Amino acid sequence: MLGIVNRVLTGLVGLVLLVVGGSVLAVGLGVRPPSWWIHGGPHDVLLSTAERTRWREADRWWPAVIAALAALVLLALWWLVAVVRRRRLAEVVVDTGDGGVALLRGRALEGVLAADAEQPDGVARAQVRLTGRRAAPRTHVRLLLEPHVDPGVALDHLTGRALVHARDSANLAALPAEVRLKAVGHGVERVS
Question: Residue 99, SS3?
Fold first, then answer.
């Protein structure tokens, strides 16, 4: 979802900047603008003295402008942090035992761990996400359980087999996990 929002916002901001910048450049090069445009010619300013001082006497104008700009800055900072922060681990460093290291794709380890977690009867679906550092990954697992399964059995299989197998195969010292269990919704059964 964040990727879609990121692409849409980047596209809209880019389009607005391209249109405004291109039109200002065109007016500066001598193209005659429409009568409603903010620039009348190459020597025109963005805000005239009359436009800048028009709202000086209004008590609520400047606090509203400052609040709107502060909200815009906070939104831009949130967007920047969301874009820069990695949600998934791209690769895991695996010690080969001979002094070298190999890189294991994070998605591959997630897929194998999810397939292993789905093996017991009653686990409808497992979703795995790796986070943390390349040398010290952490897992976030969501298990979707059918109504008849004992959550303890599914959790024991995950912690005792799937996570141990993933940790040993990647030669990691530890593989901490955060596990969330959720039951599958099911419809009402008919009784005849």
Answer: coil
| Distance from chain centroid for Cα 57 | 44
Tell me the C-alpha to C-alpha distance, in Å, between residue 15 and each of 20, 21, 22, 39: 9, 10, 10, 19
Is residue 180 within a helix (H) or strand (E), and if so which, with residue range? strand 177-183
**What are the tokens at 134?**
């390349």
Q: What is the pLDDT of residues 57-94, one digit of tens each?
A: 777 887 888 899 999 999 988 888 877 776 778 888 88
Amino acid at 166: A
> Based on C-alpha coordinates, what's the Rg of the chain?
28
Distance CA 172, CA 109 (A): 12
Cα–Cα nearest to 136, from 84, 94, 108, 180: 94
* pTM of the predicted structure, to 2 decimals: 0.55
Tokens of 167: 């940790």
